[in-house]
Amino acid sequence: MEDLSHFNNPETLVFNDIETVTLTDRDEKPLYSETFTNQRTLYDDIPQYSCEICRKTFTSQLDIFVHKEMHSKEKTFRCEICGKYFVSTSVLTKHKLIHTGEKPFHCDICGKSFTQNSNLVVHQRIHTGEKPYECDLCGKSFVNKSHLVTHIRSHTGEKPFHCEICGKAFSTNFLLKTHRQIHTGQKLFHCEICGNSFTQNSHLVIHIRSHTGEKPYHCEICEKSFLTNSHLKRHKRIHSRGKPFNSET
Asked: Is the pTM of this model over 0.90?
């Protein structure tokens, strides 16, 4: 665990922009307590602190120090179903929902259910149209913070997730995980109709259309339909006499 001996302020201060973090051991005994000024940048939701262990990012010193304690804690709570260990009973309880399929949080509007209340809150914004996270650079809004963080990287060019095999970098952990399948040969996305497997979910989605006959991309000139947007763009060159299609013409 990181040396925290330089933290020596046990007092709890309560006033604007001040946060006090208290970390505990497994018996809930205080390890140390420290007061931080929770300074944020112009872009309130851009992560400024990165965990060197798992690369998760945070917006304040408070958040990252609490998070790092999760790594330092011994994982003593075991899932009897799959054998995985967790740092607390609350984390274990959430994990078990994966096995039971239980989704206790229900949307009152459409009836869809979720394993966590936070997922329900984000889902409900689909119905309300609420997008509370706005990009200060271009004004685009998003339903949750993670989407905003990913979007901001399109402005900054930041790619914090690196492949340890080839060194290629990605803007999201999801893209990194998808990329790794190139090296491992894993095909995690399976067609329930014919059993074919794919390295990317997007490839599976396109494949399933071969079963359903769905062609969601339509040419506004001749009304012909296609499986993918790339097929539609290739088709439009017929109308533009071999020139790259310009949607404004």
From this structure: no
